[in-house]
Amino acid sequence: MSDTDTKTAILDAAETLFVEQGFEGASLRSVTSMANVNIAAIHYHFGSKDALVKAVLERRLSPINQERLDLLNALELSCADRNLQLEDILRALFEPALKMTGFGGDSHSNIARLIGRLFSEPSHSLQLYLKARFQEVFERFSAALRSVLPDLPDVDFFWRIHFMMGAMCHTLCDQERPRLLSGGICNPQFFEETCDQLIVFVAGGLRAQCVATKREDVE
Q1: What phi and psi values does residue 162 have, to the nearest 5 degrees?
Q2: How close are the terminal C-alpha atoms of the chain, in Å?
Q3: What is the pTM of this model?
Q4: Which of 74, 98, 129, 203 could lock onto 103 through a cystine, CB 3.0 to 4.6 A?
């Protein structure tokens, strides 16, 4: 195999095994066996298991984040002479992730399961990596959302951003849940319906009345 083919084979095998066995559970030996390469090839292309995990994630998450930024750039350019709309910002954030994680039936099904692994197996190294990789997306979309929610207090704004991300991640990682809960009425294969429902739900939460929070000093 060429270097490119070898690297792709390693990434494909590692992705499959990380999904099936977890980041900690999948060994480099099992990756080499599935990819039909030797351990030296992994060290040559990636250097370590930690670097291999990040390369697997980068291959899948980077296109999603780039499309998000491209959509937001286009949206801001088209709205140069008018105000941004909350629902349009949310669509730019949600749509790329929904498309690439299997909604509609034509995407890479492992992405959603990889995201699920990130939440079920959090590690300090991965959290630092994810913070760095999503920093630009977070800052750009937070600023856009802030521009259409200028009167929302900071404490409410950031709590709602947290809940928004939770709703999106739960939708991505548990795609069969709506079908099971509804007895088949809600079908996650209907991409537009799923995206529209998520946008309406999150937009309602972001626009909701502020919470009157009473805090006690914590020593």
Answers
A1: -60, -50
A2: 61
A3: 0.87
A4: 98
User: How far is 13 from 76, CA to CA, in rounded Å?
Assistant: 39
Q: How many helices (H) and strands (E) does the chain have?
A: 10, 0
What residues make up the domain containing 202?
61-207
Asked whether 31 and 42 are in contact (CB, 8 A), the reply is: yes
R_g (Cα) of the chain, nearest Å:
20
Q: Tell me the per-residue pLDDT of 97-109, one tens digit each, with 9 for 90 and over.
A: 988 876 655 445 6
Q: Are residues 31 and 130 in the same domain?
A: no
Q: Does residue 78 share a domain with residue 18?
A: no
Q: Do the domain assignments include residue 213?
A: no
Residue 14 corresponds to which tokens in the numbers above?
């590692």
| Cα dihedral: 132, 133, 139, 145 (round 10) | -140
Contact assessment for residue 112 and residue 102, using Cβ atoms and an 8 Å cutoff: yes
Which parts of 98-212 are beta strand (E)? Answer: none
Tokens encoding 208: 């909701």
